[in-house]
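seq:
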Amino acid sequence: MLPLSFVTAAVMLAVWFPLTTLWHQQSEIDTTSAQIASIARQSQNLNDQARSVSTKAAEEMLARAQYQLVAPGQSLIQVLPGNGSGYVSQSTGDPGLQPVVAPLSATTVDALPVSIHRAAHGSVTKFLSRFVRTLEFWR
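struct:
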């Protein structure tokens, strides 16, 4: 039994451990070669894109589409999409995109959204208190 255990230990040291090391190294080599192939494909795609935009027409198209540039002597006109009613949606956060208020209804604070109503109410009371303090000399 003792000689068989020595033979088994010798086989494991001579064959099994080097083979597992070689197997792990081969899997790492395969992974690395797959990454290299992927990077080579990406590089080829980028080179193709660079060649496709290197023409004068492609440069002008790219400048117009992505950077809103125009040739000298031309002017840029942008038509913004509407929502059908002619006004921009009330849900946008930019107050510059809100529809114009009629002058007759501009004095009513109730027509404003809640957050603007609170801010306007606070600013109106602050303004009135400052205004009254400046007019105290009339008393």
